[in-house]
Amino acid sequence: MHISSLLGHTQELLGVIFKSNRPADSLIDTYFRARKYLGSHDRRFIAETTYGTLRHLRKCEYHLTTALAGVSGNLLNDDKIILLIVAYLSFEGRIQEITPEILLPRLTGTQTKENVAFLLTNLAKPPTISVEPVIQRIGIEYSFPDWMVERFIKQYGESEAEKICSSLNEQAPLTLRVNTLRVSVEQCQEELQKQGIETTRTSFSPVGLNITKRINVFSLPVFRDGWFEVQDEGSQLLPILFDPKPNAKVLDVCAGAGGKTLELAALMKNRGEIFASDINGFRLEELRKRTKRAGVQNVRVQEIETIEDLVDRYKAFFDIVFVDAPCSGLGTIRRNPGMKWMVTEQTVKEVSEKQKAILHSSVPLVKPEGRLVYATCTLLKQENEEVIEKFLMLHPEFTIVKLNADIPLVQSVGGTSKDLFFKLFPHIQGTDGFFCAVLKKQMIR
Asked: Which residues participate in catalysis according to the annotation?
């Protein structure tokens, strides 16, 4: 497909994303399914350019504003979108592919058309970001909202905050979790190799494989046979951390589509009992399909309206209650860069209140000497440490289980026996960002 048409498709897709509250990956998938005529190379250009423009949106806007110097008047919305795309392509060293003749059919504003050569010349110059204070400089350079940069600096310091922002702009690897109920990691890797798919073992997860070249793994026969699930390595580590025994009774309170539920089943060797509950029936239906494909037999799926629905029947019943809490998801920005612009400080405030409520409601379900495990995929203390601190003030019968530095997993990710919480960072471990706290319920005497 000609570059002009590719730019037009990317412009159209970004316009859809900017107007929607749905995640970009879902909208991109819908867009491609409705346009079967697009070849694999076309889809790759459109997807990568869309993600790239979203990932570097604020920097693109800064570059475009600088390039517009001397051109008066406001840009029409469609013109702005196509020029933001061109700004992104300039960062990738591809602006020489865009000529005035290619761009003109995509522009609607008279003044923009008249100045297209001037704009392209300016956009071809690397942007110089000479902005103070440091919050704005980092925000523009890595395309993050100021409030988010400010939070990162306050929590981690300026140098670490910059590394976090940089790492969240990198493309996440395509990682599989091998389903050990069906096959060994070695067998799975060997079979993928036979199909011409190169993989490498993950750094920390004993059941993970990274695919070196991005492909549609969901079309593979071994996926349909339940040999693996797509799951970030950090996500794989959480169930391993709290190590459920095969005879345990486990509740996955916010199970959703059940990625970690399925891993718990494999760790427990299809024994014991796992109750997977959620308020979203559609996501639980997906979990039912996945359990069947994976050969999982020890999971009971239950849709609920509130956690209190479970208390009468399962009071003090569970060895482990796992709260994989709804959160802002800032640790997963590598996968959904549009999230930067959707999450606000108000969002974080609201979700932290919800997290506290879910933890509080889960207390009666934990048996004495049982564990309450809290996890998020965010990097903000307001959703992590502060939630746990507030919970412990209200529930003195719980204590934090310190990390065991003798556990190889804790050692390998850099944890020590001084650590109260298990934390993963994209710029340190190369995983999505995660937080996990393990709490033990004391026997009341």
From this structure: 377
- The two counts, helices (H) then strands (E), for the chain are 21, 12
Secondary structure letter of residue 434 according to DSSP: E
* Number of other residues whose CB lies within 10 A of the CB of residue 327: 25
Q: Where in the chain do CATH 3.30.70.1170 domains reside?
A: 174-230
For 371, list phi and psi in degrees, rounded to 5: -120, 140
pLDDT digits (tens, 9 = 90+) for 99-117: 888 888 888 877 778 888 8
**pTM reported for the whole predicted model:** 0.92
pLDDT tens figures, 359-376: 999 999 999 999 999 999
Q: Classify each residue of 333-367 as buried b or exposed e, where b means 16 or more C-beta atoms within 10 Å of its C-beta.
A: bbbbbbbbeebeeeebeebbeebbebbebbbbbbb
Helix axes 233-242, 259-267, angle to 10 degrees: 50
Which CATH code of 3.20.20.70, 3.30.70.1170, 3.30.1360.40, 3.40.50.2000 fits the domain covering 174-230? Answer: 3.30.70.1170
Residues 347, 409 contacting (CB under 8 angstroms) = no
DSSP secondary structure of 54-117: HHTHHHHHHHHHHHTTT--SPPPHHHHHHHHHHHHHHHTT-GGG--HHHHGGG---HHHHHTHH
| Cα Rg of the chain (Å, integer) | 24
CATH 1.10.940, domain 3-123, yes or no: yes
Q: How far apart are CA 56 and CA 58, in angstroms?
A: 6
389-423 pLDDT, tens digit per residue, is: 999 999 999 999 987 755 667 667 766 667 789 99
Eight-class DSSP state of 22? S
Q: Pick 233-441's CATH classification: 3.40.50.150, 3.90.1300.10, 3.90.1150.10, 1.10.630.10.
A: 3.40.50.150
